[in-house]
Amino acid sequence: QAIVDFERLGEHAAVFRGHDVGFCCLGTTRAKAGADGFVRVDRDYVAQAAELARAGGCKHFVLQSSRGANAQSHFLYLRVKGEVENLVQAVGFDHCTILRPAVLLCKRQESRPTEWIAQQFLGAVARVFPTAYSVPVETVARAMVACVLQPGEGKVKVLENRAIHELGKA
């Protein structure tokens, strides 16, 4: 484990050397970082980390994105997620897996009342439609590991929420 300064990520290139696989779940919220900070963290930092990983020898990069990611979206969140997906794919990894989970079900240390209400509602909905609108973070983590252990064919693989559920249970 290494601590890096993302504002000076290029100075930490050595940390990214010698790894076959890279996992990226980096992200923030617009409410926490502002619009410019959100773009810097969710797009710029991730793209730079991917470039450093590839330059350091990484063969398979696994990116947690979001359901609905689309570089042409009018919504900042979905547009930035789509843009970073495109940037990471352009880096040229041997394998690139992009996971697009729906609402992540998790316990947070920080208070996010609106998210808590949504999670309570979606947790109940998940009992009837388990793969439709949400996914536990533990399932996403298992799917990320499984996609590396069973990379399959093709250079780029995009896993939507249902596929994340299936792979995360394997």
UniProtKB/TrEMBL annotation:
Q: Which Gene3D superfamilies match?
A: NAD(P)-binding Rossmann-like Domain (3.40.50.720)
Give residue ranges for domain NAD(P)-binding. 5-151
Kindly state one GO CC term assigned in the UniProt record: cytoplasm
**SUPFAM superfamilies the record matches:** NAD(P)-binding Rossmann-fold domains
Among the GO molecular function terms of this UniProt record, one is:
catalytic activity
| Short name of one Pfam family | NAD_binding_10
What Gene Ontology biological process does one annotation of this record name? import into nucleus
The record's listing under CDD domains reads: CC3_like_SDR_a
Q: Which InterPro entries match?
A: NAD(P)-bd_dom, NAD(P)-bd_dom_sf
> What PANTHER family does the record point to?
OXIDOREDUCTASE HTATIP2
* Assembly and oligomerization: Monomer. Forms homodimers during oxidative stress. Interacts (via N-terminus) with elongation factor EEF1A1 (via middle-region); the interaction is direct and competes with EEF1A1 binding to guanyl-nucleotide exchange factor EEF1B2, thereby inhibiting GDP for GTP exchange and reactivation of EEF1A1. Interacts with nuclear transport receptors XPO4, IPO5/RANBP5, IPO7, IPO9 and KPNB1 as well as GCN1L1/GCN1 and LRPPRC probably through their HEAT repeats. Binds NCOA5/CIA.
**This protein's name:** Protein HTATIP2
What taxonomic ancestry is recorded?
Eukaryota, Metazoa, Chordata, Craniata, Vertebrata
